[in-house]
Amino acid sequence: MFSMFKTISVVSLLALSGAAVAQEQTAEQDTAATAEPQIGETYVSETSGDWDVRCLKAEEGTDPCQIYQLLLNEAGNAVAEFTMLPLNAEGPAVAGATMVTPLETYLPAGIAMTIDGGEERRYDFTFCNVQGCVSRMGVTAEDISLMKKGAKAIVKLVPAGSETGEPVVLTLSLAGFTAAYEKVVASTAQ
């Protein structure tokens, strides 16, 4: 049980650090990204399709990694971040996912997600901080299978203050999902 909470804490840390990195990326940081990461820094170990494999440089042992995708709106603006990593716990959830959305998200509506037009799943928000509002999701083996076979997931969230209550619709590409996820599963097994 402790291992699952530790894993979810790492997921949250990596997700929240990703938001800051996405907002502060500069040409100097692009050059620095090719240098060896320092202990405690997040780095992209590889990219597979539309997914990055992001890792946290550890002092010893294998660096913990997760898969990451930045979700954009129709205008190409960054709206949300999605991260996922396998869990080493027994239970229905075989992976943990985190979605970070803007602070001005209508929290009671939660997040709705469908994979290739399938059954809609709803996820509640867990907390908000200066980086955004966080939803933690338990991902089942069936969900992983659907994502591996799928082309895209549609994610809906409602902006706070929306007069109509119409959701913002985002696309989570599943191109490269299988390779990225399997890479993280393999690194976790080491």
Question: Mind explaining what this structure looks like?
Answer:
The chain has 190 residues and is of the alpha+beta class. It has a single domain, classed as Immunoglobulin-like, CATH 2.60.40.1880. The protein has 4 helices and 11 strands. It has helices spanning 2-24, 27-33, 141-149, 177-189; strands at residues 42-48, 51-56, 65-72, 78-86, 93-101, 111-115, 121-123, 127-129, 132-140, 152-157, 168-173. The strands form 2 sheets. A 7-stranded antiparallel β-sheet has the order 1-2-3-4-5-9-8, with helices on both faces. A 4-stranded antiparallel β-sheet has the order 7-6-10-11, with no helix packed on it. A hairpin with a 2-residue loop joins strand 8 (127-129) and strand 9 (132-140). The longest helix is centred in the N-terminal third of the chain and has 23 residues, at 2-24. The two termini are 20 Å apart.
CATH topology name: Immunoglobulin-like
How far apart are the first and last residues' alpha carbons, in Å? 20 Å
Q: Identify the CATH architecture.
A: Sandwich
Order of secondary-structure elements: HHEEEEEEEEEHEEH
Order of strands side by side in the largest beta sheet? Answer: 1-2-3-4-5-9-8
The number of E-state strands comes to 11
Cα shape: globular
Structural class: alpha+beta
Helix content: 25-40%
Radius of gyration: 16 Å
In the CATH hierarchy, what is the superfamily?
Answer: Invasion associated locus B (IalB) protein
CATH class: Mainly Beta
Taking all residues together, what is the mean pLDDT? Answer: 85
How many DSSP helices?
4
Q: Main β-sheet: number of strands, strand sense, barrel status?
A: 7 strands, antiparallel
Beta-strand fraction estimate: 35-45%
Q: Regions with pLDDT < 50 over 5+ consecutive residues?
A: 1-24
Our count of domains comes out at: 1
